[in-house]
Each structure stands twice: as C-alpha cells, then as structure tokens.
C-alpha cells in the first residue's frame, strides 16, 4: 500500500533569492500571511518538476524591491528562531517588516509592526515619513499635528527631510498657530458664547472674543457684573 502524505503536517518548502542569497523556508507562512501576491504565485499552474521555480537552489524565486536585512526581519517574525511568540526587534527591523508587509500585501505583519513601532515612540518626523511611505494615516495626523504645534519649532534641517513643499507648509502652519495663540492670549471670552444656554457645543473660536470692549461682538450682551454671563480670560 503506497504511503500517503498528511494533508495537515506535510509542509512544502520554497526557495527564494534576495541579493544573491538563497533561502529555503516553509511555504505556508507566505501563503497564510499574504492576501494576494504569494497566494496567487503559488496557485498558478506549475510546469514540469525540474523546471518549477522555487523548488531547487538552482532555480529560486527571485524577490526584488527588498534587501537581505529586510527579508530576514520578516522571516524572523514568520518563523521565530527563539521559539513561539513575537520576537524583540529594533525600530529599524520593525520598519523593514512594515515595508515588506505593504509591498507584498500582508495585513497581519503590518498590524503587528505598526503596533510595535507605536510602542517604540516614533518621532514626529518619523511618523510623517513612515506614515506617507507605508499608508498609516494615524501617524500622518499625529506627526503633522505635533510638528505644527511645537512651540519651540523643529530645526529646519529636520523638516527639510520631508521635502521642500511639506517643510514650507509646516512652517506656515506653525506661524499661524503662533499668531492665533498670541491673539487669544490678549483677549477675553464671553461666558454665554463659550457655554451656550441651549447646551450645545462650546464656541471656541473668534466669534466670542471681546477685543478689549465691554460687550460681546457676537451676542451683543454686556457680560460685566452678570453672574450668568461672566467674563472668562
């Protein structure tokens, strides 16, 4: 009676080549983690065994768009050498993993990398750079907001790493925030407009500024000496 392969525990391997280095790994990691690239690759009709790409060291699947270091970071996450669990990686290694996860349509390693990079405290510049490169909108929002609201300002050399146009936009926005803060710091607010009687959301912008007068330009009520419509600095 011929022997049968286990459908569950008979692992197929695949040979990859990255920057002239050969890797033989289990195929299942790439099939399970990729939503399209490798699933599609391995589902294609295969030629004769001696011509099948990825079966032998002499005929590997050549991967472009990544370095050996980047690929090995992803492999270590897929097949941890230290046993089960998520390995401890540097910021650079997690960035490598995120890059390849986006390149090869791998949502799971992308989520893990984003979570771990959040724990490593990215700088605002890194948030903007990586957020743009690897489609992480929350990093873009937080990075831009932090840079714009930085009261001390970021060195021009650091901003220029984001490109001339973005650096100029950030500098312009920083100036606008500074002007607004100076304006708000020299005015007072009408309690009625900040806390509408209807219970609606507070109006926090220019409409309720007193501009040194004794009445509110917005609601035209004299708030002085009135407990309900007191002044707020």
Automatic annotation (TrEMBL):
Q: What domain of life?
A: Eukaryota
Q: Where is the BTB domain?
A: 10-117
In its UniProt entry, what is this protein called? BTB domain-containing protein
Question: Per the UniProt entry, what species is this protein from, by scientific name?
Answer: Coprinellus micaceus
